[in-house]
Every structure is written in structure tokens, then in C-alpha cells.
Amino acid sequence: MSRLPGDVVIASAFMSYAGPFPSEFRLELVRNTWLPQVRGLNIPATEGFDFALFLANPSDVRDWNIQGLPADSFSTENGVMVTRGRRWPLMVDPQVQANKWIKNMEGANGLRVLSLNMADMARKMEAAIQFGEPVLLQDVMEEIDPVLEPVLAKAFIKQGNQTLIKLGDKEVDYNFDFKLYLTTKLANPHYTPEISTKVMIVNFAVKEQGLEAQLLNTVVKCERPDLDKQKNDLVVKVAQGKRTQAELEDQILFMLSTATGSLLDNVELISTLDQSKVTWEEVNESLKVAEETSVKIEAASQQYQPCALRASILYFVLNDLSGIDPMYQFSLDAYNDLFLLSIKNSPKNDNLQERIKHLNDYHTYAVYRYTARGLFERHKLLLSLQMCMRILQSSKQINIEEWQFFLKGGSVLDRSLQPQNPARAWLSEMAWDNITELANLPNFKGISDSFEASPGAWEAWYRENEPEVAELPGEWEPKCNELQRMVLVRSLRPDRVIFAATTYVANSLGRKFVEPPVLDLGETFNDSTPFSPLIFVLSPGVDPTDALRKLAHEIGFDDRLFTVALGQGQAPVATRLIEEGMKGGTWVFLANCHLMTSWLPTLDKIIEGMEGQRPHEDFRLWLSSSPSPKFPMAILQRGIKMTTEPPKGLRANLFRLYNTITEDGFAECRTQHKYQKLLFSLAYFHSVLLERRKFRTLGLNIPYDFNDTDFKVSDDLLKSYLDSYEETPWDALKYLIAEANYGGRVTDELDRRVLNSYLSKFYCEAALAKSNYPLSPLPTYYIPDNGSLQIFKDYIVTLPATDRPEAFGQHPNAEISYLREDSKIVLDCLLSLQPASAGGGGAVSREELVLGIAQDLLEQVPAPFNLEEVMKRKAEDPSALHVVLFQEVERYNILLVKARHSCRELIKGIKGLVVMSADLDLVFDALFNARVPAAWLKTYASLKPLGSWTRDLLMRVEQLARWVEDTYPKVYWLSGFTYPTGFLTAVLQTTARRSSIPIDTLSFEFSIVNLTEKEILQAPKDGVYVKGMFLEGAGWDAENGCLCEPQPMELVVPMPIVLFRPAENKKKSQKGVYVCPLYMYPIRTGSRERPSFMINVDLKSGLADPDHWIMRGTALLLSLAT
């Protein structure tokens, strides 16, 4: 009793302020903030104050648990706040636990369930207020209808004995039995102060600790029902005992207050006191026994804690996936069902430790199977790796510092203190940055010295085809565990990261976790119920309708499958079919839901209402949709998701195309001797275009969705033209197929050039005349000799399952290039899934790390130029090039001011001197992840990580500073301009003015200058020398000044200095010249505001013809991603 004042103060603070926070922060507030403050004011308070124990009645809590409120302490705290708070509760409820609890708790009291988008919401709210009924307003977003403002604020109007409240333009009689509950499914909503002061925001979002407690209750209930029963009986017994004590206290107090005369003469009072004493002692004794039993039950329950921990970890792995793709939504209810199935189906064992191991292993794989079915192929390894890392992290088997390095790599802002790269010939600057930063980790001390001492051994490992399984040089082989080996692979051979990660998961969890199960539609159907929709998540060029019809045929549902392609005016048809299907037990397939997102909230309500309508047991609702952020989360969480993807590889695509050709269709063309070969060439052409996308920009600048219709139309054209002309109309066929049909989808002129090059090779006289005409440099791929349709299918089966880059006319290096890009995507996705609280490991916190980076940047990024001073200096020479200089200085000044201001504000924010705004949060996250903040990339586009970008910025500013101080540079670093096209236009303008010729008649001629920058003593008479370009997709023969094959693992090569000389009425490119596109940076499409393409540069094509380099995707780049 003496500690009551302090407890009341803390409970009041908790009730007022703790609602929006997660459990760990609530605990921190009580222990580290409020308790010390209360003690500091000498107010007595309970040492281990517990809000739930202080304000919650155990029997009430038990009722709440029966009604669906989870039994963990966090949920109990929320229950107290919801039921005892003076403001209406607004519950942040992404897992819909609060929603369910409120519906069960208030269901018997006539609960009205409303949502803001209901047409008659205000009318129903008015009725509930008048009749004193509870209302659940669900699916609230970040704004609430202003009509409800007086209700939220409890703005009562007194008129005599009446209490009224304003609702819209009406004043409504207020019944004090009215209750209002609000819930939102948004996981992290931002409410305005106007809303958050009127309602009590209560955070019901499940966190790992809370879910662990819930799942522990689940597993104990299933595995030890005896313990669960004992626990429930105890709650009832304790509640009865405490009630008896309270009744005795009340009785004695009543008798004492009403007693007259001497208390010693009051026989009834004395006998009641004696009886109360005996009863009190008996109750106390039973409560002590109950407490001891409770401790034993808790200890027995805790033995199952490893199962709850594993299941909780796995749920949050699934929950995080929504950050990768909006369609990856998983409900907690469905997950609980899966966990119960795992408990039921996993192997039983009398030995508890063995039983727990079996259950964990079974459930882990069950989660993988269940989730992988709904993921795209590219994200399945991501799931395995995240599961593996989180499981190992929970058992302290993973070094977080090394894991963070694996995700982010090393970033060096200032190379002045960095040791010299000992092997520049093969070790890139980026790789050396990784190694020198790696040397700062405790387990990698001396790694950079090892490179200096044994560069040959490291080079041999680096050049291995599979370095992830090769022996590491010297002492590092026995020293490194699997994660450390993976870190080395990431540092030196990023193209092998996916293979290293696959090996890591296979060795840690098992081989089956890197071999995703093939989608079995029949098995998925067996897992489904009439209440949960089955959702196909679509990929370009794939239609699941045929597979669904085939399943319907197998089950005997041919005439009971109804399909609707959603679009304008189809909503009533879809609604009618669903209603009829629920009654008659038919299947309804709503295709292309992404084309009708405005109707999907209505569909959500229809699906939500299914449980109350008890649909026919045979009814199934099938949906298909491309990924869309507008697809309702509730449908995705309730449904079973399946991804549909096109087959991978030339063989699979060729086989699929030939399976669509019938014997009659194959024999339809009269000129069979031509048709059979040209049809195969067409199928190969189609397959190559589909598969070429994997090479990204080396394949096509834009990934087009070519589909079977393109192939079918081209096939019909081929038959028609071959039968109509005696001479093969090559030009007409090539134009109609490459330019009109397939080319109709192509929006980039340089991509159209690729299509033409392929078809020129595949459609020529030699393809008909030559036996086994080769379709690629590899002998495996050729046009088979004429025969039956089956002969062509038999040949396709002999092709390899995985394709080498040469099959597409690419160099083997192209494979390294796309594997690097794939690895980068996986690492970036994994990095985005890491919790924000994860520090850099060791003693360095996240804040300290970012503070150090911001301070380094502030020191290194120079102050802006004085533009007025620059313009005065160059006032005597008003040339076009000086106008470019002024514009560039102005743009760089904006960037320098922005970068320095962001760093200064961020340093203040980390120190707590200013409020961290949303913009500063973005800068903070970017610096922590060693990336350039998006706000800094508006001046010029770049893919470089933070360290390389900073050094690049300093070089750019230095070029301008030298130009400002001195005269025109002899050699221009074209990459150093924010708008290089503006600079090149100024060069043309200078020549046009000097020669008095129209600028639109000028274009550039290009010649290679085999001199270093130091050897160039003066600028050219006409044009400019340009340095700093890189060649991608080819090598450079310096001796002959032409393109050549690159060396193995040589992805880009630096170009020599090139003279850009303006010339009037330039002739068309000669034979043996490759017209090479020049791009600003590796994303060749650029953005809508800033295209990456600049100009075509003529380069000698060397021993190969220009088509060879077109198929290679050879291009010049001004800036790299490293």
C-alpha cells in the first residue's frame, strides 16, 4: 500500500504515453525513465513495476484470452489500455489480432462493424450512438473522416438533462453505453497531431518477443494439454481466492462501519473476524501453493521455448518479404495454422530434446515449401539465406560484423592512408578497398599483408572457375569458416556470391533448402479451402489459364470452371459468378486483377463475407494478377499464392514453342524444304530474345515482353510469303519480322539494331543451302536437316539445359557481368531486410558509424565556388565553352551546398541537437549502407557506392577548379560534366561560329590518339581531346586501333584518348566500322528526365564484322558502377 502513489503515477504515464511503442521500448520507459524520476522525487514505487499486473484483473485477462487476445504480457498491456482508457482506442493492427479480439469481446453486445468507405457509415454510427451499441471502425488509413471529429474528441453538448453530440449536420442523443474502437492494418502509420491527441493509439503489431510467447502457449497447449489445463484451473482458483479475500475485507469493513456500542461486546463481529481469519489463512495457503505450481508449470513450459523461438523467427522472415515485393503478404492466422500442422505431422519422440529437434526441422522446411510456392525464382535463394542467417543468429553462430560486411562490402572515402594495391594487373580498386577494410575486422587481421606477400597465390585463387569451393591461400584455408569464405568471395569475385551463398545454406540447413519444390497445382488445390482464394502472381509472357483448365479436366470440373478477364464493365459479371459459385460449388477464375484495382476493395469485402455465408465445399475462387501495390493486403494474406514464370533456357523455350505447333500446322506450308528450316530459325530467334534479357544492358537496353503471339504471327507470315513467292523474299521477311512484328514492341533504336543483326544471320541463303547451318559460334546449336516435327523435337531435347553466353553471340565475360548484377540485387535486397537496430557489430553502434562517415564527408567535400568571381575571371572570353563552365559550376555548387548542409544537420541530429526529419533519416540510412543519398544524385546520375562517388566528386570539382584558375584544358574528362551533351554541343557551336556554318550541318568525326595526357602539349586546332571513356562488351587492340576480343574476366577496358572533331556533312559509316553508342553510366536507358545515351562513336570493328559487336551489346561508358 505504501508504494501505491508511485505506482499510480507510473501507471498514469504508461496509460497516456506508452500505447504507440513496442514492448522493449515500453520496458525501457518504465525502468530507465519513469521509475528513476519517481524515486528522484522521493515517491515510493514498486521496484519491478508491471503495468499489466497493476491494473489487470486476472479473470478479465483469462476472458480476453478466450476471446482471442494473445496471452503474452504485451497484449495484456494493450488490453488494459483499450478497456480502461478515457480516449477511444485506435489500434495499429497489421496482424488483425486486435480486430478479432474486439469482434469476439463485443459480439454479444450487438457490435456494429463499419469502415470509412461504407456508403451508410454515418447513418449506422448515428444509430449506434443513440442506442449505446459498440462500434468497430476497421481499415482506417492515415486520415479519418472529419464527420467523426466530435465523436473522437467526445465534444458533448449539454441541453438541459440531455447530452448531445454533433455528427455531420445533426445533433444526436448520446448514450453513455456507446463504445468506439478503431483499427488500422497499416504497419507503421503516421497520424497527425490532430488525430493522435483525440484517440489513444495502441500498438498491437506483433514483435518477435510477443509472438514467441504466443507460439509457446500454442505448442504447450498441443504437446502438454495437461499443463495447459492446470494453468487455466490455477487462473480460476487464484481469481476465486482473491475474490473471497476481497469479499471478506468488504464484509469486515461494512460491519465495523455500521457497528454501535463497544466492539468487544459485538459477538457477531468477533465471530466473523475469527471466521475471516481462518478463511483468509486457508486462501493464502492455497494461493502460495498456486504460485509454486505456477512456477513449476512455467518451468515445464519453458522447455518448449526453442520451438517457439524458431517459429517466431521464421514468421518474421516471411513478414519482412513484403518489402521486396508488394504481393509477398503472409497472415499470422495462416502461419499459426501451418505451425499447428507442423506440430501434428512432425515425427513424435518420447525424448523431449529429440522431439523439439524434429518439430523445428519439420516446421522450418514446411515454412520454406509454403513460402517458396508464392515467390519468384529470383527471390527463393533470398528466402533461404535470410532464414539461414536468422536461425544461426538466434543460436549465436553468426558474427554480425562479418555478415554486415558480406552485405555492404568495404567503403573507403579517403585513400591517402590506404596501403598501395600490390596487384593492379588483376586486383581492381574496388576489390582492394574491400580487402583493406576487411583487415579491420578481428578475424581478418593481416589479410592485406597476405596479398602483399603472396599476390601470385591469391591471383591463382581469384582466377579459379569456382573459387567458393577452391582452397584459400596459405593460412587462410584453416582459419576461415564458411561465412568468412563467403565474405572473401564477395570481396574479390562478386559474380560467384550466389553460388557461395547456395553452398552456405545447403551446408547449414540442408540441400533441400536450395532446391525449391516445383509448383504442383493439384497439391496446391488440395491445401485450399472454399474460404481462401488461390492467387496466381503473373510474370510477363505467362498465362496460367491452360494449366488451370488441365487441372479442372483431371478433377472432372470441365463444365464447372467459369473464367472472366477483368476489365471495364466486368465487375457485375464477376460478382454474379462468385455468388452462383458459392451456392453451386463451381470454380471462378478472375484473370488480370491488376487491370481493375478500383474494384478489388469490393472483392475484398466479398471474400471477407464468405465465412458467414458458408459456401459450397467444392467452390474455389482463382485469381491472377501482376504484382501491384494496389492489390488488397487482406486478399493476399488470406489467399494461397503461386508464382508463374516462363521456362528458363533456350532448350526449354524451343521445346515449349514446338509443343504449340500441331502436325497439321507444321504441314500447312507447301514449300516444306524452306519452311522447316526457317521455322526453326524463327523459334531460335524468339528464344534468344527472351533469354537475352538475363544479360541486362549487354543483352537489350530495355527488357521487352515478347510473347507467343509474336511467334505465331511471324509463323503465319512465313508460311504466307514462302507460298506466295518462288524466290525467297528475304528483305520482306526480315523487315516484317524484325521491324514490324517483334520490332513493334521495341522502343529503343539500338535494340532494334540487335533484332536486325540476329535475323540477318538466321535468315539468309546459307541457312537453306548449308546442312546443319550454325546458329551460334558453338557447334551444339544449328538448324537440323528437314524431317518430321518429331525429329525437330528430338533434336531440341539433345541441347544443353544451361546455355553458355556464346549461344547468344556473347563473350563468356557476359556471364560474369550478369552474375555480378544478380549478386548485387540479392545483397541489396538482403540489406533492405536487415533490422534498423542492427549495428555494425562489435562496440561501434549504428549512430557512431554514421557520425564518423558524416564528419569525414564534411571534411572532404569542398566549399562551393564563388560563381560571380568565376564569371568575372572569364568575362573577356564569352565563348560557348565558358557558358558550359558557368552552368557546370552553378550545378556543382547546388550539390556541394546540399551535401555539406545534409552532413552538418545529420551530425546535429545524431547528437540530439535538432529533430531528425524524414529527409535526414533517408540520408542516415544511405550513409549506413555505404550508398549515396538519393537527394545528392539529382545533379548527375551515378551507380557508384559512397566511397567511389566521393572520390569521383572531388576529381570532378578539381577539373572545374583547374579550368577556372587556368585556361581551357588540353584534354577534357567528359565524365566530369553533369551534362556532357551540353559540352559537346558547345564544341560544335564553337566550330560553327569560327567557320560561319550552320550548326545542324556539323557532326563529330572520331580518331584515336595513342598518346598519354602528359604527352599532349596543346589542344587540337579543331575539336577536343576526350579522356576517361570505358569500353564494355569488347577489348581494345591498342596496336591496330580497333575492337578485339576481351581477356577473360575483363568486363570493361579503359579507352585511349579520342579526338572529337566537328566535320561538315559527314559521310555514312564505312564498312568495317562499328557505330558504338556512348552512354553516361551503366543504366543505358537512363531516366525520363535524363537519358543516358549521348552520341554514337565510330570505332574500327577489327577482325569481326559490326554485327558481331552489335550482338555483344558493345558500348562506351563515361562512368562505371564502381
From TrEMBL:
InterPro entries: AAA_9 (IPR035706), AAA_lid_11 (IPR041658), AAA_lid_11_sf (IPR042219), DHC (IPR026983), Dynein_C (IPR041228), Dynein_C_barrel (IPR043160), Dynein_heavy_D6_P-loop (IPR004273), P-loop_NTPase (IPR027417). GO terms for molecular function: ATP binding; dynein intermediate chain binding; dynein light intermediate chain binding; minus-end-directed microtubule motor activity. The keyword Transmembrane helix does not apply. It is found in: Cytoplasm, Cytoskeleton, Flagellum axoneme. Residues 676-814 form the Dynein heavy chain AAA lid domain. Pfam families: AAA_9 (PF12781), AAA_lid_11 (PF18198), Dynein_C (PF18199), Dynein_heavy (PF03028). It comes from the Eukaryota. One of its GO terms (cellular component) is dynein complex. Residues 822-1118 form the Dynein heavy chain C-terminal domain. Its main location: cytoplasm. Keywords: ATP-binding, Cell projection, Cilium, Cilium biogenesis/degradation, Coiled coil, Cytoplasm, Cytoskeleton, Dynein, Flagellum, Microtubule, Motor protein, Nucleotide-binding, Repeat. GO terms for biological process: cilium assembly; microtubule-based movement. Residues 530-643 form the Dynein heavy chain region D6 P-loop domain. Residues 62-283 form the Dynein heavy chain ATP-binding dynein motor region domain. PANTHER family: DYNEIN HEAVY CHAIN 6, AXONEMAL-LIKE, DYNEIN HEAVY CHAIN 6, AXONEMAL-LIKE-RELATED. This is Dynein heavy chain. The lineage of its organism: Eukaryota, Viridiplantae, Chlorophyta, core chlorophytes, Ulvophyceae.
